[in-house]
Amino acid sequence: MTALTLADRMSTRDALPTAAERFGVLARPDLDYTPEIARETAPLYEKVRAHTPEIEWPVYAPYVAAINRLKRERSAVILAHNYQTPEIYHCVADIVGDSLQLAREAEKVDAKIIVQCGVHFMAETSKLMNPEKTVLVPDMRAGCSLSESITAADVRLLRERYPGVPIVTYVNTSAEVKAESDICCTSSNAVKVVESLDSDTVLCIPDEYLALNVARQTNKKILTWKGHCEVHERFTAEELLAYKDADPSIQIVAHPECHPDVLAVSDYAGSTAGMIDYVKGKRPARVLLVTECSMASNVQSEVPGVEFVKPCNLCPHMRRITLPKILESLTDMTGEVRVDPAIADRARRAVERMVALAN
Ligand code: 13P
Ligand code: SF4
Prior knowledge:
Layout: H1 6-15, H2 19-23, H3 35-48, H4 57-74, E1 76-81, H5 86-91, E2 95-97, H6 99-108, E3 113-117, H7 120-129, E4 134-136, H8 152-161, E5 167-170, H9 175-179, E6 183-185, H10 190-195, E7 201-205, H11 208-215, E8 221-224, H12 237-246, E9 251-254, H13 260-264, E10 268-269, H14 272-282, E11 286-290, H15 294-300, E12 307-309, H16 323-332, H17 341-358
Parallel strand pairs: 1-2, 1-3, 3-4, 5-6, 5-7, 7-8, 9-10, 9-11, 11-12
Helix pairs in contact: 3-4, 4-16, 6-7
The structure holds 1,3-dihydroxyacetonephosphate and iron/sulfur cluster.
């Protein structure tokens, strides 16, 4: 059988009915801030009160109410990453978590539609984990600097250059890149995944810093790629030491996408979920989360008494997801994520191998 060219695959894809054709387009809901909407959303406002001034709530509330109503009508669930804004994280999300938690939860979703409030690779992962579901991402342009740092052709070249060396690929990559990999990892299980492989040398791609941080925790030789997270690469050890100088009791909690020098001056390093658990468990008087700064806003209301110091680095890709775009996506059924079945099967194997290890 001859392999399908990209053009063949595109035309096959285009021939499929769109999500709008399958589910229908609904009328735009009214977005007035009525007394009913005020009553309905009042408990949700309490969760975001610390971040959303009361004067702004009449703008958010009609979207929150409309999205929650549409989710029921459409049989949809919202999976939101820990970096989403408080109004999304606390008011419309059904499931929140880090990349690994979201991938595992996506597999269990029973509803017909998954709305992924996160970046494109996360939506693709949900589609891989639960291919029967319709997966929507409210802004198709929500990318990731790590995902964009490497292509499937790059991975094939790495295989040629390092024959027999297993390739561990961070989930922050496209399905095409995952399909060329042996196994995926996330920031919460990278060391475990690397350790599980029967090889003294492992390619850990594309995040150079994550790979270097893994290398410090294993005896295996780790080969890296030059990808970086544009948010985490901005943090420096000097900057963090200045905070420590000002307050030696401050807890510094960092994400492993940061440079190893940053992790060296941190009290804890882990995935976004690991960072949240650490703060909830330790309840430090003052903490600095060395990561995308929306996360501090999300956790803050759950740990009263903990003061968050926020050097505010925002992920421009995560910020593309907004309440109006979620509503538009659910009304018009736009932003459907599809993965070529031939690529999906191979990419799924790499993700499932990781999930099996996590289980
Ligand atoms: P987590 O898997 O730790 O949530 O990280 C995802 C991510 O994109 C961090 O920048
Ligand atoms: Fe990608 Fe960094 Fe944004 Fe995470 S924070 S989605 S790694 S660019």
